[in-house]
Specification:
The protein has three domains: 65 residues, Zf-an1 domain (Irregular); 61 residues, AN1-like Zinc finger (Zf-an1 domain), CATH 4.10.1110.10; 161 residues, Phosphatidylinositol 3-kinase Catalytic Subunit, Chain A, domain 1 (Ubiquitin-like (UB roll), Roll), CATH 3.10.20.90. Helices cover 23% and strands 16% of the residues. The chain is built from six helices and 13 strands. The strands form four sheets. The protein has a six-stranded mixed sheet with strand order 8-10-9-13-11-12. It comes from Patellaria atrata CBS 101060. This is AN1-type domain-containing protein. One of its GO terms (cellular component) is cytoplasm.
Length: 313
Amino acid sequence: MAPLNIPPERSEAQSYTSMSVGDVEAIGAHCQMAFCHQLDFLPFRCESCKGKFCLDHRTESAHNCSNAGAWARARRQDSIGTYRPTQKPSLLNHEQQCSSPVCKTLVNTALTPGVHCSNCNRQYCLKHRMQEDHDCSNLKPLGARPSQGSTQKEKGLAALGKLKAWSLAKKNNFPKAPVLKKPSAAATSRATQLAELNKLKSTARGDDKVPVEKRVYLYVEASADTTTAKFPTGKFFYSRDWSIGRVLDAAAKALQVENVNNRGDDEAVRLRVFHVEQGRLLDFGEKVGEVLQSGNTIVLLRGVGPPIPDLIG
């Protein structure tokens, strides 16, 4: 009888192959695990399903291999020259049980099929197959990687950084008094500023019930990248005794900007008031006369978070 052609054993038997740098198609492959998709420059190839996976999901059990055991069967066939089917799972050799912590039922057996939950990526018995039965909403999906999104504080920091740069550029475009020795030039600059302020006062709109001596005249804008206003700019006057929250309500109504601040505490949709000259968000409780002067500019912004000092300073 001819001798069996038995291939030399590898130093370490494994169901996956580390793909070499020379394999051009392997470079830059994404992990095929449904909850991962990590870009891996040297991925692993599963010898059973031929899929490509990252380090964390290279084994058959880690990526719920669709053709689990194929590599082991092929290896046994190469070793002994014939294929022997594996035994059906039984209580003696089957260790997978329902993922519910209160259940000890063995699943994926001949008598008890397992049900895979696509939301949390776990196997359950028929009794706990529904999401509400295994508290699915409070479980982190198996194989899922930490979210790459920024926290609310990081989002606020990034947004305020952009706002500060924007306000600085806007202030640089304001007319400035030239530093000259001639007093006449400085007087001309002051006259120009007074003329601009008088023009603002003559065109600004507001509540006629506000006494003239208490009016603060402002340029008001709605940022195009955070709001959808029909009239994104305007000139208005408000009472120096008003709070910033009241100014926000009046400005949003005048510019036709959707204002849902009174419907909930979700900062992603709430409006805030940004003071260009100071380069900061104003608190709703601050008074107009304490933080604003006639000729200043305020901007209505959405989803930038509260004016927390460590985000602004």
